[in-house]
Amino acid sequence: MEQKLIIRQLGIRDYQKTWHEMQEFTDNRTDKSADEIWLVQHPSVFTQGQAGKAEHLLRSTAIPVVQSDRGGQITYHGIGQQIMYVLIDIKRLKTQERDISVRQLVSALEQSVINTLADYGIESYAKADAPGVYIDGKKICSLGLRIRRGCSFHGLALNINMDLEPFHSINPCGYAGLEMAQLADFVSPQEADCGKVSPKLVEHFVTILGYNKQQIFNIKE
To answer: Which active-site residues does the annotation give?
Structure first.
């Protein structure tokens, strides 16, 4: 039986509040719980991955630093960055002839961004040794996942039209000197809008994973 997919439009939400809600959702979900995608923007915050190293925060700022349980090193979230959290029962997908591993889920996230950028005529690519999406050596999208009880949470952060300056206070994703990019570098300000980009991103992601589009429900909170 096809499981429905719920897409929640959360607007602007505090990082820690959203993160704890993801944990609670994952801990309490059952085999019958629908998978969910959460679309959100966070006020300025640095988040440090589970194995993150303190030296990748290069200087103290007024921006809070949160120790998270996702994979990866340190990154920055701010208004104008589209975040897509994927709360997916991976083990259930394996029983529905859509065999998927964690690596395949990462690839699906990366490919959804690559396909979205291609909609704007932008050529981008993923790297096997450094998860995320890149344009001419600059990183435009960061990824970090956590798997608990066979289910994923956290997801991707795609830079749309934001202040990139805080990235200079860190080694983004643990890479010294890594430059960041955003959609606004390549398209008009009218096109570089989270509300316009997120439907394309979701559409590509659900297509790649093979969700039945008749079972997808959008909820604005």
So the answer is: 173
Model pLDDT for residues 124-152, shown as the tens digit of each residue: 999 988 999 999 999 999 999 999 999 99
Longest dimension (CA), the chain: 52
d(CA 74, CA 57): 7
- Spell out the alpha helix ranges (H) of 33-95: 90-93
User: What's the predicted TM-score (pTM) here?
Assistant: 0.95
Superfamily (CATH H level) for 5-219 = Bira Bifunctional Protein; Domain 2 (3.30.930.10)
| Backbone torsion region of residue 130, taken as left when φ is above 0, otherwise alpha when ψ lies between -120 and 50, otherwise beta | beta
Tokens 């990019």 belong to which residue? 181
Measure Cα distances from 1 to 29, 95, 100 in Å: 18, 10, 18
